[in-house]
Design brief:
By secondary structure, the protein is an all-alpha fold. Helices cover 76% and strands 0% of the residues.
Length: 124
Amino acid sequence: MSQEILNSAIMQLRAKALEVYGVIKDIYRRPAQEGDADKIATLSLKLAQLEGGMITLQQYAPEIILSVANEMAIAAAEEEEQSATADERGEEVSITEPVITEEELSERSPTYRRTRRPKKKDKS
């Protein structure tokens, strides 16, 4: 995600807040009608939510950007380290999980080799 997405969200919240603010002003400007107080109260709550969301996002945006940048840098460093280690050993770099074949398991594990031996028959 880029910083433009966060800025876009902040601008959308600001635009919606300004729209609600304008509606409140229009209600106040015209002659009073029944239910205007309720409308203004409802719109005020909506305005407070939009402004709160906008302010919260503005406050957290730098932290979000920095946190994601750090996570991406760590992931890139780990991937680079794995690639360098694999290159040093002459291995091909693989992003998928390695799969151990039965032959490799047989070479690596004495326990596996023991379980694969034919069983001795009892002399009865």
